[in-house]
Design goal:
Helices cover 38% and strands 6% of the residues. With 295 residues, the protein is mainly alpha-helical. Among the domains are: 119 residues, Zincin-like; 34 residues, no CATH class. The strands form two sheets. Strands 3-5-4 form a three-stranded mixed sheet. Strands 1-2 form a two-stranded antiparallel ribbon. The longest helix has 29 residues. The protein is rod-shaped. The relative contact order is 0.08. About 17% of the residues have low confidence.
Length: 295
């Protein structure tokens, strides 16, 4: 067989061109043009619906208009709609929600769905007023309590006052250094003098107990023999006997002071603080109604 190079020199290019044309025709026959359907996207007011692209359309006739059916995997849908959790949709359906039906995050309604109702502004205002009133009563009582302590320089500086937030009248003294009073009793005091009369009774009781239990008075005075008193004969001069009497060295027994009345001490404290005896009496009546008995 004879081989003619001039006749076959253009055949490779011809074969390539025919192959390309055949592939283009085959691809044209197997390719189908698909137009994606319009996607319905919800608007904030949950009113009418508008397509994400293209011309406006009506609401699709589906069972759940808020959740359109998910297209098949073979269809490419641009701008897919945002899926909303069912618990987030309860905000617009519960009573007391926004009448416009606007959507809100589910975190704002967590307390309501759990049965915990937030306090109203009126309740919050009432709570703030009550807290401010208790704080004011505490500062007022502290000021008068310190004023009563200043009338007794020998008082124990460790004495403490405790104001308890209780509506019922309460007045107690807890040895060795605590005075307890309730806010309900403080509100019954019309003046600072009445409050001073109330606080003076338990304070005087604590002061009287601390003085009667002092160990320094239970020891006999020290023996200081000086001059002729150290000898075994004769009597002391009268002037020396007078000095020993004044210093307490004339007798060799312990000193037991007589227990003072806490009511008299309380009256003395109130009068020294600048209040009247009538206010002390009225304060004593309120203290008796609260169940306090000085002893």
């Amino acid at each position: 067989m004879n081989h003619n190079p001039r006749a076959n020199r253009h055949r490779p290019w011809l074969n390539t061109t025919v192959g390309v044309v055949w592939l283009i025709c085959l691809a044209a026959c197997q390719t189908e043009t698909r137009i994606p359907p319009p996607t319905i996207a919800p608007v904030p007011d949950w009113g009418e619906f508008s397509p994400a692209h293209g011309k406006p359309s009506t609401t699709p006739a589906t069972t759940d208009s808020l959740h359109p059916s998910v297209p098949s995997s073979s269809t490419t849908v641009p701008n897919p709609p945002l899926r909303i959790a069912p618990q987030q949709l309860k905000n617009s359906a519960e009573p007391g929600s926004d009448p416009s039906g606007s959507w809100r995050p589910a975190s704002e309604n967590t307390g309501r769905s759990a049965g915990v109702h937030p306090a109203s502004p009126a309740d919050a205002f009432t709570g703030n007023v009550a807290t401010a009133d208790i704080q004011g009563q505490r500062l007022r009582t502290e000021r008068i309590f310190r004023r009563l302590l200043q009338t007794q320089p020998s008082a124990d500086p460790a004495l403490r006052l405790f104001v308890v937030p209780q509506a019922e009248p309460l007045l107690r003294c807890q040895p060795p250094n605590q005075v307890i009073v309730s806010v309900g009793l403080l509100r019954q005091c019309a003046s600072d003098g009445q409050l001073a009369g109330i606080l003076s009774l338990p304070l005087a009781t604590l002061l009287q107990r601390s003085e009667s239990q002092s160990a320094a008075l239970d020891r006999p005075p020290p023996d200081l023999p000086i001059g002729p008193e150290s000898s075994t004969y004769g009597e002391l001069p009268p002037w020396r006997q007078a000095e020993l009497v004044k210093t307490g060295h004339a007798r060799r027994e312990p000193l037991h002071p007589r227990h003072s009345d806490p009511v008299l001490l309380a009256r003395q404290m109130v009068l020294r603080a600048g209040y009247s005896a009538q206010e002390f009496e009225s304060g004593g009546v309120l203290a008796g109604r609260a169940g306090f008995r000085p002893n």
